[in-house]
Amino acid sequence: MKVIKFWNLVWLKERPLALLLVAFVVMGLLFDALTRLGVDSDGNQSFQQVIAPQMPKVLVLSLAQQKRLQDKLDAFNHSNEAATDNNQLVATETKVKALSLAEQDEQQGELASLFIGDRYYELAGVFHQEQTFAVFVQTDTNSNESELMTLPLLGNIEKYTLSQVNASHVVFQNEDRQIILRLFKLS
Predict the structure, then answer these.
(1) How far apart are CA 101 and CA 62, in angstroms?
(2) 3 state DSSP class of 142
(3) What is 12-34 written as a DSSP string?
(4) Chain CA centroid to CA 70, Å
(5) Superkingdom of the source (predicted)?
(6) Rounded to the nearest 10 degrees, how much is the dihedral formed by the CA atoms of 98, 101, 103, 105?
(7) What's the per-residue H, E or C state across 93-131?
């Protein structure tokens, strides 16, 4: 009886299929080990990818952060910049005039803000998570006070239904009228 030693691989030369099978197994083991260690295509090992936990895709704001964001939005939405003699910018507060009920009932097409009663709404953000929703800055035209509000897709603000939430705009429906509020102004 002939004894085959592990380091003597002469028997593989006589069996090409066995040699091919051993080569595939070794390559598979190497591929598995490299992908588990996080080695990228350049050969650089990325331990941060392996060890560091994944960051959440949605950041949740604390109440203090929400308040600071609200204050910044208020300052941005309710100020005009006026240049002084020495080119310094000074913020001056403006008050938006409310629309009459007849003017409100004629609102349609693409608008900067939607007037409903003694409030107007400006689009501040759109989100597509477990639920699709939009964030609006709701401003009282009498007191000029603003607050953030969220509205889910197919939600209502009085007689207006949020029918579409897209990456750059939202669409409200009221009977046969369609109102589009854009996230950014198009130039």
Answers:
(1) 38
(2) coil
(3) HHH-HHHHHHHHHHHHHHHHHHH
(4) 18
(5) Bacteria
(6) 130
(7) ECCCCCCCHHHHHCCCEEECCEEECCEEEEEEEEEECCC
How many Cβ atoms are within 10 Å of 85's Cβ, its own excluded? 5
Q: 178: which residues sit within 8 A by CB, 6+ positions away? A: 108, 109, 163, 171, 172
Per-residue tokens: 52: 């560091």
The domains of the chain are located at 10-51, 63-182
pTM for the whole structure: 0.50
Q: What pLDDT tens digit does each residue of the chain (187 aa) get?
A: 555 555 555 666 677 777 788 888 999 998 887 777 665 555 555 544 444 444 444 556 677 777 877 877 777 666 544 434 444 444 445 667 888 899 999 999 999 899 999 999 999 989 887 888 999 999 998 888 899 999 999 999 999 999 999 988 999 999 889 999 998 776 5
Classify residue 43 as left (phi > 0), alpha (psi -120 to 50) or beta. Answer: left
